[in-house]
Amino acid sequence: MQPGQHMSADIAAQPKIYADLVARQSELAGVAAKIAERRPRFALLAARGSSDHAALYAKYLIEVLLQLPAGLVSPSTTTLYGARPDLTDVLLVSVSQSGGSPDLLEVTESARRQGALTVAVTNTPDSPLNLAAELSVDVGAGPEVAVAATKTYSATLLALYLLIDAVRGGKGEQAAKLGELAQRTLDESQSAVDEAVQRFRFVNRVLTTGRGYSSATAAEAALKLAETSYLSARSYSGADLLHGPVAAVDAETGVLAVTSSGQGGAAMREVLDVVHSRGADVFAVGSAAAKVSAALRIPVAESAEEVAPMLEVLPVQRLALGLSLARGGDPDSPRGLNKVTKTR
């Protein structure tokens, strides 16, 4: 078996997964209707690892599309410190690919006892987390053999979008063509990804950055590069980058900037002007990549800003795959990692 074979297959499967998930919009709308009926006063999101980045994306969706305050849960406040806040009229969304992490299970069970409406979003419909939550959503990505999450991550993003959009009464219109846009993105970005692999293969320090919805992609990019290529990768919001971290940027730093069309991408232009002027090798990914200062640009199909993370993450995954192989690794079996990580 060739190194990276599983990860490559999982990446290639995403366009069909998107199309299949969009076709299930009415199923997710049924869950959304129950959420809307309860009229939560704010939302909390519980997750770990890649799912935590999906939760960050959902936080933006909830605050922007639903106009509800939202926050990310620190599971240890429940599991280690025994906090039991009153969660009456609160929506708790627990996001987990496996649905088997003990800390997320304990947080969900506790939140339900404390009055929250609990929703599990997983790729394992019969998981303990699904059984613990009042409502559940199956992201439908199918089995993922590679350790590094790719299709389960992107499918989780789309499931969260369809769910949250349906809560506000939408029918997933902005996501309707994501399947074909994803295939186009994979096809049209490959040569630029190959070039980026050659430019980044000897870099040991990478900084990833984005704004708004794309903050989640930047965070996921740092994790993928760290776990598959063993790079020292750190993610910063473009809003924070100039407040101090830019001091560490120099000609030896690789910068991956996520810049899709919309307000978040527009806000990155000035930031990248500064970063580029410091001599960093800036690699811009997204539908607005052509509009920012960068040494290399990877095109992504145009979409509404709120669904762009499902497209911009695709070449990022391909970059992580390519870099791992170019550096002599096997992204299907990163050292020291397991498919399911259990924490408390």
Automatic annotation (TrEMBL):
Top EC category: transferase
Gene3D superfamilies according to UniProt: Glucose-6-phosphate isomerase like protein, domain 1
Domain of life of the source: Bacteria
Gene Ontology molecular function, alphabetical: glutamine-fructose-6-phosphate transaminase (isomerizing) activity
Ranges for domain SIS: 31-173, 196-334
Alphabetical UniProt keywords: Aminotransferase, Repeat, Transferase
Pfam families named among the record's database cross-references: SIS
PROSITE patterns: SIS
EC number annotated for this UniProt entry: 2.6.1.16
Sequence segments annotated as region (Disordered): 325-344
CDD domains in the cross-refs: SIS_GlmS_GlmD_1, SIS_GlmS_GlmD_2
UniProt entry tagged with the keyword Transferase: yes
PANTHER family in the cross-refs: AMINOTRANSFERASE-RELATED, GLUCOSAMINE--FRUCTOSE-6-PHOSPHATE AMINOTRANSFERASE, ISOMERIZING
The protein's name: Glucosamine--fructose-6-phosphate aminotransferase (Isomerizing)
Protein source organism: Kutzneria viridogrisea
Taxonomic lineage: Bacteria, Bacillati, Actinomycetota, Actinomycetes, Pseudonocardiales
